[in-house]
Design brief:
The longest helix has 34 residues. α6 packs antiparallel against α7 and α7 crosses α8. It is built from 13 helices and no strands. The chain is 74% helix and 0% strand. By secondary structure, the chain is an all-alpha fold. 16% of the residues are buried. It is globular.
Amino acid sequence: MVGFNLLIVVSLSYVALLFVVAFWGDTQARAGGGGWLRSPIVYTLSLSIYCTAWTFYGAVGYAARSGLEFVTIYLGPTLVMVGWWWVLRRLVRIARVQRVTSIADLISSRYGKSNLLGVIVTLLAVIGTTPYIALQLQSVVLSYEVFAGRGVQDTVTNPSATAFWVAAGLAAFTVLFGTRTLDANERHHGVVTAIALEAVVKLIALLAVGVFVVWGIGGGPVGIAQAIEASEIAVWDIQGGRWATMLFLSAAAFLTLPRMFQVLVVEN
């Protein structure tokens, strides 16, 4: 197990790096430099916000339970991006014309800028995303327990305290670089740049875990294939209706989750 003090130092250093990158991105954007901040590469990397901390647990667990069906979680967003010319491009154009800053603004703008409708959509978004945020915090706490060891975790702090400080850090980051101004024409280049950097870290982490599992535990692709054949998920029962539903839900989530709408449409 990794020492708890070392884990704290590494975590705080990583968070500090994200703060520095976000501050630097904002500074470059205000100074009129950093044209690469608006590049397609940074924008594409920022879309990785779809894969949150819970992806490390939820996607793997779903694959273990349902086999190939877990792919639908990512096929839906893929189909959205394939049809970006007809769907996403139109959303971006509407958002700029209507000065939209959230999914609630977009929906209310289609019905005469109804304040009541905007409030209802906002409340639904808060109610729907609160359990999801709780899952993200739970995944962070579980990660601390895995790396530091449950015994060390219990003697130094408790899961509630860990979740609290993580939430406080996220709130501070959001206030400093996200909600200081609500100008519809403003782009939060610092936040997007930090997300892009995090995307690279996620990619490296996922590849490292994949290499370790395939070659370190499974004995290579052949061993992994044999393990799959010997498991219950070897027979993939593809149900058309269920797959279509999962594809629709994942595509809708990719477009309408508040964080995805912010990056896909508002920051475009």
